[in-house]
Structures are given as C-alpha cells and as structure tokens.
Amino acid sequence: MEHSLETLKSCPSCGHKSFKNTLSCIDYTYSKDKFYLVKCSACNLLFTNPRPDELAIGKYYDSPEYVSHTDTNSGLLFTLYRIVKRYTLKQKRKSLEKFSIDKNILDYGAGSGDFSNELEQNNWNVSAYEPDHNARKKIEEKNSKIKLIEKLRNVETESKSVITLWHVLEHVHQLNETISEFHRILTTEGIIVIAVPNHTSYDASFYLTDWAAYDVPRHLYHFDPETLETLMSANGFRLHQIKAMWFDAFYVSLLSEKTISKPGILKTIFGWIRAFLIGSYSNIKTIISTKKCSSVTYVFKKAI
After folding, report:
1. Is the dihedral of CA 123, 127, 130, 133 positive or negative?
2. Sequence ranges of the domains in the chain
3. Does domain 73-204+218-302 have CATH number 1.10.3470.10?
4. For the residues of the chain, what is the DSSP string, one character each?
5. In sequence order, what are the residues at sequence separation of 6 or more whose Cβ sits closer than 8 angstroms to the Cβ of residue 292?
6. Averaged over 298-303, what is the pLDDT?
7. 0.90 exceeded by the pTM?
8. Please, what sign has the CA dihedral across residues 249, 47, 150, 141?
9. Which residues lie closer than 8 Å to 177 by C-beta, 6 or more apart?
10. pLDDT tens digit string along 202-254?
11. Which of 39, 81, 100, 113 is deepest in the core (most CB within 10 A)?
12. What is the pLDDT of residue 1?
C-alpha cells in the first residue's frame, strides 16, 4: 500500500537520538502493513518509527471497526463494547465531579462525542476537539450545545479547569507542543486526565506483537507509567493520581484474539475463554500494582 512515512531522528519525548529496535507489528485494522516499534535509549519511550505523517495518517482510521469514530454495533464484540461504554461514561463523569473544580472542560480527541455529550447533559460547559471530519459531524448531531474547537491556539489561556484525553495522547503527532498548549490552557488548580494503554501489562506480555493496544500505526507512542510521567514532568506537570481501567484488559484481550494469527479463533468458545482468562489474570496483577493495568488513567496537575 502506498503511504507517506516519516522517520523520526530523535525521541519525541526527550529528544535523544539513540533508539533500540524492539518489535514489529501488523496493522490489522486497515493496511495489513508491518510497522516497527523502537525504544529510546535515554527515557525508554516506546514509539512507532517510521510512522505516517500528519497528512497521511487519516486514511488509517477509515475502517468501520474503528469504533471511537464510527459508533458501530456490528457483531457481538462491538455490541459488548457499547454496553460497557455506556456504564463507563457515567463513571468517568462522576470521577471528575469528585474534584473541587468548576465544570469547564476541554474534551480533547472527543471521537464521536459520547463523553462530551454525557458531560453536557449533566450541566458541564463542554468544548471538544476532534480532527476527524466524520467524527465531528457525529458530535454535532448528538448535541449542538457542545462547542467544537478547531485549533488549541484559539483557546484562551487558563480558561479550562479540566482537560481530558481518553485514549488520545498516543495518537498526537506534535507531542511536546500539544502538551505545552495544555499547560497554557489549564487553570492553576485545574487537572488534566490522560488514559493510555500500558505496554508493561500482563496481557501485553502474553500477546506480544499481537497485542491489540499497539494498534499501529494509529498509536504513535506506547506508554508505561514511567515514560508518561517523564514526559508530563518535562512539560510542567506533576502526577496527582493513578487509576486502573479494569474493563480494558478484557476488551484488549478480545481484540487480540480477534486479530491473532489463528484465523477465526474468536468465533470459537476457546478464543472467548482465553481472552477472559488473560484479562482476569492481568487484572489480578493490577491488584498488586495499578501500574500493571492494561490501560491506566492518570490525573496530572500543574507543577508548583
């Protein structure tokens, strides 16, 4: 498949110029091409390199199975995803409301707008940023009261008390530049909430290159708790809280079974059972250490 790839010469987090080749993964969702993951020799960030540039990346999201943009209910797996999502949307909102902050939020990478809509319907003042044209249309269809933001630089300084990125930071090309803008936009006592997959989880170690949360090339970076905290600290943030995302271990394991080298394995009872067992064991590891969860939610505040 023809595509435009850019090769990074320095680490997108710390700028170091020495990398170690680590893994090669297949894009099962769209192109079926192979992409390579390298690790920074200095800060240990794992990232996709080479990767599609900002102009070329859009087509890799053009799949009915990319649920955050399409709202698909096709098949049992995605039907279960939608059921769980309805529950977790409320839980995410309630977790934000526990903080002593006003309800002025930027939902960055809003997808098809489900979380933004959940907030607006519960008296939040919601601004949303979403680069995908079709996803933006879905946001407008769901709730015309949500303010769509075209560019971060148009947002006033210290105007948002909350910024959320639910499985979004791993998609952002201009990494440090974008986080710097978040620092400018966020109020002094505000919070930024970042949820990302964790490649040091048990399910990642079990599925290896077939781990669905690598999701190359859409996922440009593959964080763990240490590399994310290093990145955010360098941009003026301090870690305030870390929380496990319990459902993700099961969902990612199911997706991994779906794309694994044995065709049709998820259509058999064995695939579903193994995914449940791997997800369960991954969550048992999480009980011992939240930093081992399949996906982790981090709450950061501005450093003093």
Report:
1. positive
2. 73-204+218-302
3. no
4. ----EE--SS-TTT----EEEEEEEE-TTTT--EEEEEEETTT--EEESSEE-TTTGGGGG--TT-HHHH----HHHHHHHHHHHHHHHHHHHHHHHTSS--SEEEEET-TTSHHHHHHHTTT-EEEEE---HHHHHHHHHH-TTSEEPS-GGGSPTT-EEEEEEES-GGG-SSHHHHHHHHHHHEEEEEEEEEEEE-TTSHHHHHHGGG-GGG-TTT--EE--HHHHHHHHHHTTEEEEEEEE-HHHHHHHHHHHHHHSSSTTGGGSHHHHHHHHHHHHHHHHHHHH-GGGSSEEEEEEEE--
5. 198, 200, 201, 202, 282, 285, 286
6. 97
7. yes
8. negative
9. none
10. 999 999 999 999 999 999 999 999 999 999 999 999 999 999 999 999 999 99
11. 113
12. 47
What residues contact residue 257 under an 8 Å CB cut-off, 6+ apart?
Answer: 265, 266, 271, 272, 274, 275
Alpha carbons within 13 angstroms on the beta-carbon side of residue 232 total: 23
Please, what is the Cα angle at 120 between 117 and 122, to 5 degrees? 110
Instruction: State the Rg of the chain over Cα.
Output: 19
User: Is there a contact between 33 and 27 (Cβ–Cβ < 8 Å)?
Assistant: yes
Pairing of strands 186-197, 160-166: parallel
**Can you read off the two tokens belonging to residue 152?**
């971060």
At 160-214, the pLDDT tens digits run: 999 999 999 999 999 999 999 999 999 999 999 999 999 999 999 999 999 999 9
Query: What's the start-to-end Cα distance of the chain, in Å?
Result: 48
40 Ramachandran zone, left/alpha/beta (phi>0; psi -120 to 50): beta
